[in-house]
Amino acid sequence: MSDANTKIEETIKANDVVLYMKGTKSMPQCGFSSKVAGVLNYMGVDFADVNVLADEEIRTGIKEFSDWPTIPQLYVKGEFVGGCDIITEMTLSGELDTLLVENEVAFDKDAADKIREANA
User: Fold this and answer.
1) For the whole prediction, is pTM greater than 0.90?
2) Would residue 78 be called left, alpha or beta, if left means φ above 0 and alpha means ψ between -120 and 50 degrees?
3) Which of 12, 41, 84, 86 makes an SS bond possible with 32, Cβ 3.0 to 4.6 Å?
4) What is the structure's pLDDT at 1?
5) How confident is the model at residue 9 (pLDDT cuts 50, 70, 90)?
6) Are the CB atoms for 50 and 19 separated by under 8 Å?
7) Mind spelling out the 3-state secondary structure of 29-88?
8) CA angle in degrees (0–180, nearest 5) for 55-38-16
9) How many CA atoms lie less than 13 Å away from 14 in the CB half-sphere?
10) pLDDT tens digit sequence for 72-83
């Protein structure tokens, strides 16, 4: 296993929710990363952010690890959930709420409902 795979595995095991993104949750550096981080931040989800721009090995490694070609990538309880489009769809359908509840991840249900209301 490569060093990148080891780091990725350790990170997703050590944190309930991890977002591999371009930039950080407080300073996203691409629109897709900004959208997913914004949803998680707004919903009050406590998540670890990994800036793939800071480490080329992780940037390449995460794509191989998940077999997913794009960033951002969201992991919940060690499982790959998806990228921006999937997280957006899951947020609007309520599936993200269900996933978080099933995995005992705290979030603000009222904030999630407001996102859906604003996009109805």
Assistant:
1) yes
2) left
3) 84
4) 54
5) very high
6) yes
7) CCHHHHHHHHHHHHCCCCCEEEEHHHCHHHHHHHHHHHCCCCCCEEEECCEEEECHHHHH
8) 65
9) 9
10) 999 999 999 999
